[in-house]
Amino acid sequence: LRARRVMQEDPKQAIELIKEAAQDEKSCDQCPLYLAMAYEKLNNIPSAIQSLKSATGSKNQNIANNALAELYNLYRNNFIKSSDTQKRFTLAQEAQKLERKLKIADGFGGGFLLKFYKNQFKKEMKNHKLKKAIQSLKNILATFAPASRKKNIIKDANRQLRAYFIKEFSARLPQIKADL
């Protein structure tokens, strides 16, 4: 209780108090949640994530659910703040795992990955790399996002693939005729 009051002014001290409380009271289910809040105040995101992940395993279902929701929000907030593409991709992947677990149909993680794989597909088609383009389509189908959004992307991809094959076949038609 004291740690919660101290957290606003001195998160480092709050962390020490919470760790003491966790050792003294083995049944301190809420300690990882408070620890995560203190770490987040210090911008120590990896430690905050680790604390929240440990809280998701709590026997107290309310605490476990709160930890899942807080973890998702932590991913989302850091995703928004980050300009590093690789970090955003990793956060989106982690968030998507939680979206599946929490049954969030149209979350930011799945949405970001859907857009990413769609752009990757277009790039691979433009560079005539069919195997990689097909892998991007598989990734789109595996993404946790609404079926209607995936369906539209797949329809577009289908049109692009057909156009590609028609163009390739047309370019090779004179050679095929000559071989006959």
Strand content: under 5%
Distance between the termini: 86 Å
Question: Rg from C-alpha positions?
Answer: 24 Å
Helix and strand element order: HHHHHHHHH
The main β sheet shows up as:
none
Report the structural category.
Answer: mainly alpha
Residues in helix, %:
over 70%
Specify the number of helices.
Answer: 9
Task: Outline the low-pLDDT stretches.
Answer: none
Average of pLDDT: 87
Number of strands: 0
Task: Explain this structure.
The structure is a single chain. By secondary structure, the chain is an all-alpha fold. The protein is built from nine helices and no strands. 81% of the residues lie in helices and 0% in strands. Helix 2 runs antiparallel to helix 3. The longest helix has 33 residues. The model has no long low-confidence stretch (mean pLDDT 87).
Task: Please give the structural blueprint.
Layout: H1 2-7, H2 11-24, H3 31-41, H4 45-55, H5 61-81, H6 85-102, H7 108-126, H8 130-142, H9 147-179
Helix pairs in contact: 2-3, 3-4, 4-5, 5-6, 6-7, 7-8, 7-9
Give the tags.
mainly alpha
The gist of it:
This protein is mainly alpha-helical and 180 residues long.
